[in-house]
Amino acid sequence: MAEKTIPETKKEKDVVKREVTRNPENYVIPMVDIFETPESLHVVADLPGIEKSGLTVKVEEGILTIEGKTSLTKAQNHLSKEFEPVNFFRQFELPEEIDQEKIGAELKHGVLNLSLPKLARRKPKNIEVKVSG
C-alpha cells in the first residue's frame, strides 16, 4: 500500500478555533433522571423557573430536544441572591423502539415528566397451512 502525502497547509498562529453552537452563559444543561419500564422510557427533568409558555419539547429526526426559556425578570435591588433564572437546553438521541407519535409531557412545579412509550411488539403468530387438491 502506498502512503499518500498531503502537503502542509499554511498554519495560523494564536488562533483558537472552536465551534460555537450556543452561548454557554445563556443555557444550562438541566439535571435529568431517566428510567425504563417494560412499556416505556421516562424522563424527569428539573426546569426551575420555566413555565409552559417558555417550554419547547420536540422530536426531529430521532432527536428529543428540551428547551426552556425563563420569563422571569432579574431583580436589580435585592438584598440576597441565591437563584438566578436561566434558560435550559438538552438533547437526547432516541432509540428506534420509541413510538414518537405517542410521547407525552407534563410540567408541574418546574419538573418536566416525559413518557416515551415503546412500539408494540408483534406477537408470534402461527400460520395456518391449507391443503389443496
Written account of the structure:
The chain has 133 residues and is mostly beta strands. The chain has a domain at 27-72 and 86-117: Sandwich (Immunoglobulin-like), CATH 2.60.40.790. It has no helices and 8 strands. The chain has strands at 27-28, 32-36, 40-46, 55-60, 63-68, 87-93, 104-108, 111-117. A hairpin with a 2-residue loop joins strand 7 (104-108) and strand 8. The model is unreliable at 1-9 (pLDDT under 50).
Task: Name some characteristics of this structure.
four-stranded mixed sheet; 133 residues; disordered N terminus; four-stranded antiparallel sheet; 8 strands; mainly beta
Summarize the structure.
The chain has no helices and eight strands. The chain has 133 residues and is mainly beta.
CATH class of the domain at 27-72 and 86-117: Mainly Beta
Give the strand order of the largest sheet, numbering strands 1, 2, ... along the chain: 1-6-5-4
The end-to-end span amounts to 64 Å
Largest beta-sheet characterization: 4 strands, mixed
What's the pLDDT, averaged over the residues? 81
Spans of 5+ residues with little confidence (pLDDT < 50)? 1-9
The count of strands amounts to: 8
Global outline: rod-shaped
Rg, rounded, reads 24 Å
Q: Would you list the SSEs in sequence order as H and E?
A: EEEEEEEE
Count of helix runs: 0
CATH topology of the domain at 27-72 and 86-117: Immunoglobulin-like
How does CATH name the architecture of the domain at 27-72 and 86-117? Sandwich
Structural class: mainly beta
Strand content: 25-35%
Approximate helicity band: under 10%
